[in-house]
Structure formats: structure tokens, C-alpha cells
Amino acid sequence: MATVAKEWREIPGRYNLEGSKCPCCKKIYFPKRGLCPKCRRESMGKMEDYNLCREGEVYTYSIIHEAPECNGKLKPYAVALVKTKDEILIATQLADVNLDEVRIGMPVRAVLRKLDSDGPSGVIHYGFKFVPIR
Amino acid sequence: MRDVAIIGIGVTKFGELWNDSFRSIGIEAGLRAIADSKLAGNEIDGIFIGNLSAGRFINQQHIDALIADYSGMATNHIPAVRVEAGGASGGVAFRQGVMAVASGMHDIVLVGGAEKMTDLDDPAINSVVDATADAEWEASMGLTFASLYAMIAQRMIHEGTATREEIASFAVNSHAHGALNPNAQFRKAITLDTVLRSGKVADPLGVFDCAPISDGAAAVVLCPLEEAKKHTDSYVKVSAVEQGSDTLALFQRPDITSFGATVAVAKRAYETAGISPVDVNVAEVHDNYTVSGILALQDLGFYRKGEAGKAVLDGEVTLGGGKLAVNTSGGLKARGHPIGATGIAQIVEIAEQLRGSAGKRQVDNPKYGLAQSVGGTGSAVTVSIMEAI
Q1: Beta-bridge partner residues of B87
Q2: Could you tell me the pLDDT band of residue A57, with boundaries at 50, 70 and 90?
Q3: Does the distance separating the beta carbons of B203 and A62 come in below 8 Å?
Q4: Which of A126, A129, B200, B202 could form a disulfide with B146 if both were Cys (CB 3.0 to 4.6 A apart)?
Q5: How far apart, in whole angstroms, are the C-alpha atoms of residue B210 and residue B185?
Q6: What's the pTM value of the predicted model, to 2 decimals?
Q7: Where are the domains of chain A?
Q8: Given CA atoms B218, B222, B225, B226 in this order, what sign does their dihedral have?
Q9: What is the rounded CA–CA span in Å between residue B114 and residue B62?
């Protein structure tokens, strides 16, 4: 079973979509990176925190029918790569959505939800999912 | 650098091998390869083993020592190295072995690949496989490995570079060949309808779009090309073995309908071998999902983007269908996919074809064969080119 530390150190990314912006080439990354793969040494130690735009659209998606045990009660459920308005792709679940409605280009926004838990007495994992903008 | 030859090959049956342990399948493949090379065994001075996760599948770390020990090599105190690179573990192990011989550090090397998956139940196995993607930002967010490939398929369909039927047809090709391979997990030809109507895994992909869970092992023996004749008459030349990387997470790529690592590595491999894609007669590509097979045929330069699907659907890559036969072993889908063994089993199949010993699935007089091994969603790729002597 994972420790609590493994959970809380990822909170900025998981809750707030906090990524990194390279001060040299201005490229945005999610999740956080310690250096920009393009600027490398120039950017080391200088990467700035950057909160992704919480709105975007579905770039591609899938409906999961064979799910991990922790999501057994959820299935079938939708997952997507969402392109945020700042043009960053992120992998996420789609929530509060009719599975027949999911399509590429669908406008969505980030919400905070329970992701899963380490069994009945373990850590509960929270993080972002995306829901349709109606 | 020295040219390298494959002088021995060995493979176990692939499938749900309830009676066989990791030790027994690993040793069986290795001993077959050594016997095939006509060596006694004591000549071997190094072992490389591709293995994804014995640690989680059978709760055994340190399988390099286990293999050296149970193959009777530990008493010679030769080095044994375990290699892990997701689904490309076997391909990368092969490259390590070739490099060891090419460099002169080793003279005769055994490269094996082995995986015992079925000692765990399906959810536990899938959790290991999911961790070959980005465990923190893909798997932990509720995405499965299959769903990542399903999203590639969905995007290809959206962009008009493949239809659902074309993608599904890759499994029909794999099964047609698997039916001819005595070591394959599934030895039954299927129709397109079977794939399209199979139970959903991650829409649009169904059960028949996915490689199975398998146990199995494969091995090859390598030596310097100029020494090969001293040992055996049936050997093949390794003309190129290249490897490359890409972002761990699929979502960090500018284009998800092509694997940049495959494109780059294939280009290097063709240059090294001094050939172009049209010279390849037989290829084994990493069809862990049907859509991966379509991607591979395009990224390896056999077809332009948007044209591979139709070619597969039309039977162009099936034995006797065209100038290039693909996945004559049955591929990952029908031969089976014991992950660490897969990359080596591909090399074994190409060697069989180039030696002319592939039986009912023999390609007519092939000169060049290619094997592509993929880890994660294209995060690690090897492309090896072998040449008939």
C-alpha cells in the first residue's frame, strides 16, 4: 500500500493542474518538469509553476469496459485526452457525461473528484476529471 | 565493430502454460537455442534476458541469476543481465547482446526473453501492463493501457487515416498466420466479423483487437559473423539493430497517430543495413493491439500514412498476398504475448524465415527480415534487420 507522502506531493498537479513553463522558450509542460527538453541546461532550476487553463475540448477518447479493480463499480466509463485552451494535452476521465454523447471536439472543464482509494482503510486519491460544459 | 550472426534459435510453445514455471520455460527456450547452434554450452560467455516484471508476476527479482543458475551457466561464473524496457524488453535485450558481440567484449552470447504471466489473475496482470505507460499521469488517472491505444485508434478514425474495419483486419492477418504456427497460442483463423463483434475492452477496441495474456520464452545464440560457419551451416546475419526513445506519456506527443520513435529508429536501421523498406520481404511488428500493427506498417515506411489499413484489409501482407509478409508467426495477437519473450520470439521467426525453416508459413526465398519491438505507447522502440546468408 502506498504511503500518504506519495499522494500529497502530487497535490499541486492533481488538484490544481499545476505544470511548468520554460522561462526561455515559454513552452508549457504538464506534469511538472525540472527542465525544458528543448532548452535543457538553460532552463534548469528556472522552470516556473504554471496552472493550466481548466477548460478545453476532447481531443480523443475511449469508453473503458475492462477496468482496473478500483474502478470496477464505475465501468463503463469514459477517458479522454483533453486539449486545454492553452493547447496542452492531458489524460483524464470524463465524468457526469452520457457515454453516447462523448465526441471529439466536445467542450469540457476540469473538476475535482475522487479518483480511487487504496482499499477500504487506505489513502483516498483525489484529482481532476473533466465534465462537459453545457 | 564486428558483424554479428544468429547461430541458434529456440522457442517454447506460447499460451497459458499452467504446468510450467518461469524456470522451466526460460531454460527450455535457452537449451533449444544452444542445441540448435550445435554448441556444447560452455562456449557461452554472456547472457542477456528480456523480462518485463518477474518481480510482480511471480514475485521473483534477480532473474538474471536464476536463469544463469538453472541453465547450468552459473558454475562458469559468466555475466547475466536482465533487461526491462516495457513491451520492448526483448528487443532491447537482443540489442544488448548484439552490441556485446559486435564490440568484442563477448564472443558467444545467449539472449533470451521470458515471461510467466498467468500465475496472477487478470486484474493484477493488467495493472502491471498499465504501468508500462505513465503510471502517475495515465494509469493513476484511471486510464488503462488498452484505452491509450483505443484513443489512438479513435483519432485515426476521426482523421480519416483508417477505418474501424481496416484496424480490425490486422487481427485477421495475425490469426491466419497463427493457424500455421505449431507454437502459437491461438491456431485458428478468424473473420473480420469475429473481431468487430468481440466483447468491448476499450471502445473502439474489443477483445480480438488485443494480444492475449501469455506465458512463454524464446532465445537466440549470437557470435561474430566470421566465426558462424565454424559452428553451424544455418545462420543469419544481423544487419542492423537500432533503438530509440520517446516521451513516457502518450499525451506529451505532438501527433499520436504515428510513433516518432519507430520512424526515427527505422530510418537509422535502414541506413545501417544499407537497404530501404521495399527490400524487406518479411516483418514481425509489435501488434499488442490491432491499431499498433497499422501504425507500425506506416511508421516503418512500408505504407504511407492512411494506406496501411486498406492494404491489410485487402490481404496484401498475408502470406502469398504481396511482396511483404507481416507477422507470419501469428504476431503478438495469435502467437501470444509473454511480454519479455515477445521481442526475442520475433527475432526467432525472422531467423526461421531467412533460414527457410518456417514450414507451412515459409515466405518464398526472403532476403531481408525486420523485427519491431515497442515499449509503452512507443516510448521505447527497437528495429532489427536480419539478412539471409
Answers
A1: B85
A2: very high
A3: yes
A4: B202
A5: 13
A6: 0.98
A7: 53-132
A8: negative
A9: 13
Residue B305 — pLDDT band, cuts 50, 70, 90?
Answer: very high
Instruction: Note the pLDDT tens digit of each residue in B69-92.
Output: 999 999 999 999 999 999 999 999
Contact between B141 and A116 using a beta-carbon 8 Å cutoff: no
Same domain, yes or no: B35 and B162:
no
Among the partner-chain residues B141, B144, B249, the one whose CB lies closest to the CB of A92 is B141
Strands B368-375 and B282-284: parallel
Res. A7: pLDDT tops 90: no
Residues B158 and B230 in one domain: no
Which B residues, 32 through 91, put their C-beta within 8 Å of a C-beta on chain A?
none
B248 contacts in A (CB within 8 Å)? none
Are B289 and B344 part of one and the same domain?
Answer: yes
Q: Please, which residues have CB within 8 angstroms of residue B325's CB and are 6 or more apart in sequence?
A: B281, B282, B283, B317, B318, B319, B363
Residues B164 and B29 occupy one common structural domain: no
Overall average pLDDT of the B171-183 stretch: 98
Number of domains in chain B: 2
- Whether A93 has its CB under 8 Å from any CB of chain B: the answer is yes
Q: Measured between alpha carbons, how far is A32 from A21 in angstroms, rounded to an integer?
A: 9
Distance from CA of A47 to the nearest CA of B (A): 17
- Tell me which residue range forms the domain holding B104: 4-121+214-236
Measure the CA–CA gap between B243 and B260, rounded to whole angstroms.
Answer: 12
* Cβ count within 10 A of residue B232: 18
